[in-house]
């Protein structure tokens, strides 16, 4: 699946337990989440991708050194 240009995967490990993975640049993010529905697990990964992209954007702004 792709969310905002980031490819990710969500795989069911057991009833209600999902493993997820995505990569942004050289960084690989992995984890597990608990959700009864597959769509909820997917949504949680999408929110995590949003958070990491937001953090990346703030980091680039901060690194410019011009205060903007």
The percent of residues in helical segments reads 25-40%
Mean pLDDT over the residues: 90
Q: Which blocks of ≥5 consecutive residues have pLDDT under 50? A: none
Tally of discrete structural domains: 1
Beta-strand content estimate: 35-45%
Order of helices and strands: EEEEH
Give the overall silhouette: elongated
Q: Give, in spatial order, the strands making up the sheet with the most strands.
A: 1-2-3-4
Computed over alpha carbons, the radius of gyration is 14 Å
Kindly report how far apart the N and C termini lie: 34 Å
Q: What is the tally of beta strands?
A: 4
Class computed from helices, strands and strand pairing? alpha+beta
Major beta sheet summary: 4 strands, antiparallel
Number of helices: 1
Keywords:
4-stranded antiparallel beta sheet; 68 residues; alpha+beta; 40% strand; single chain
Task: Outline the structure in words.
It is a single chain. By secondary structure, this protein is an alpha+beta fold. It has one domain (2-60). It is built from one helix and four strands. The protein has one helix spanning 38-63; strands at 2-3, 6-14, 17-24, 27-34. A four-stranded antiparallel beta sheet has the order 1-2-3-4. Strand 2 and strand 3 form a beta hairpin. The model has no long low-confidence stretch (mean pLDDT 90).
Task: Detail the topology: elements first, then pairings.
Layout: E1 2-3, E2 6-14, E3 17-24, E4 27-34, H1 38-63
Antiparallel strand pairs: 1-2, 2-3, 3-4
Give a brief rundown of this model.
By secondary structure, the chain is α+β, with helices and mostly antiparallel strands.
């Amino acid at each position: 699946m792709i969310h905002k240009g980031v490819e990710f995967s969500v795989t069911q490990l057991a009833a209600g337990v999902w493993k997820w993975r995505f990569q942004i640049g050289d960084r690989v993010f992995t984890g597990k989440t608990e959700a009864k529905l597959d769509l909820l697990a997917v949504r949680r990964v999408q929110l995590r991708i949003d958070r990491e992209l937001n953090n990346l954007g703030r980091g680039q702004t901060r690194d410019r050194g011009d205060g903007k």
